[in-house]
Automatic annotation (TrEMBL):
PANTHER family (alphabetical): THIOREDOXIN (PTHR10438), THIOREDOXIN-1-RELATED (PTHR10438:SF468)
Start and end residues of each Thioredoxin domain: 1-105
Domain of life: Bacteria
Pfam families, alphabetized: Thioredoxin
Name this protein carries in UniProt: Thioredoxin family protein
CDD domains the UniProt entry points to: TRX_family
Family annotation (InterPro entries): Thioredoxin-like_sf (IPR036249), Thioredoxin_domain (IPR013766), Thioredoxin_H-type-like (IPR050620)
Length: 105
């Protein structure tokens, strides 16, 4: 999992020709804490995606621009175009995320 710390790191992933899963989280988010342990498995089970984790509080302007109002949330982009999103206020499960990613292959 690539964890971005600064806005400047974002540009290369936005322009990527590969599908990038942007995962918005926050340290204070209990649903995010539940998701963290399964992230390595999600990556291993979905090698055709690049996973990038963003702290919603650090990337607040981007979260607003992309209409991220619930976390954890996922936005899949390719060549700076949105492909799909799993954005809501509900807790995400590993199975739900795998099903979401399978639906956009």
């Amino acid at each position: 999992m690539i964890v971005l710390k600064k806005q400047e790191e974002l540009a290369s992933y936005l322009a990527s020709k590969e599908r990038v899963v942007f995962l918005f989280t926050a340290d204070w988010c209990p649903d995010c804490q539940v998701l963290y342990p399964v992230l390595p498995d999600l990556e291993a089970e979905n090698p055709d995606f690049t996973f990038v984790q963003l702290n919603r509080d650090v990337f607040l302007d981007l979260a607003k621009a992309w209409d991220i109002f619930g976390i954890p949330s996922l936005v899949v982009r390719e060549q700076d175009q949105e492909v799909a999103r799993l954005v809501n206020k509900n807790r995400k499960t590993k199975a739900e995320i795998n099903q979401f990613l399978a639906s956009i292959r």
